[in-house]
Amino acid sequence: LVTVYIYAFMIGWNEYMFASIFLRGLPKLYTLPFGLNELFYTEHSVWGRMMAASILTAVPVVVMFMIFERYLTSGLTIGGVKE
After folding, report:
1. Using alpha carbons only, what angle is made at residue 11 by residues 27 and 43, rounded to the nearest 5 degrees?
2. Of 8, 40, 33, 39, whose CA–CA distance to 18 is shortest?
3. For residues 69 and 61, what is the distance between their CA atoms, to the nearest angstrom?
4. Digits of tens for pLDDT over the chain (83 positions)?
5. How many CB atoms within 10 Å of residue 34?
6. What is the 8-class DSSP label of residue 29?
7. Of 36, 35, 38, 41, the residue nearest 51 (C-alpha)
8. Residues 32 and 24 sit within 8 Å (Cβ to Cβ)
9. What does the angle CA 47 – CA 52 – CA 58 come to, to the nearest 5 degrees?
């Protein structure tokens, strides 16, 4: 489980780093996490806008989880049952 976490973290970190290296100065091409990070580290923080952007970033993940939750739980249950 720890190995999966490390791999998932490394993949996410690498994607973020690639976006920060290759898309620097091209705001129209920013990925969602990179654009959110740029919004958080501006000179004048607008907290309402930052929190709204954070919620909009999280909504697709929550919706996808709600749609595929039954498949995820059934797959985990099938894999954990000994016969």
Report:
1. 35
2. 33
3. 12
4. 788 888 888 988 888 888 888 878 887 887 887 888 877 777 777 888 888 888 988 899 899 989 988 888 887 777 666 66
5. 19
6. G
7. 36
8. no
9. 125
Match 């929190």 to its residue by tokens. 51
18 in Cβ contact with 30 (< 8 Å): no
**Residue showing tokens 């919004």:** 39
Residue 33: how many other CB atoms lie within 10 Å = 14
Is the CB of residue 20 less than 8 Å from the CB of residue 34? Answer: yes
How is residue 39 written in tokens? Answer: 């919004």
Cβ(53)–Cβ(39) below 8 Å = yes
- Measure Cα distances from 2 to 6, 27, 53, 83 in Å: 6, 35, 30, 26
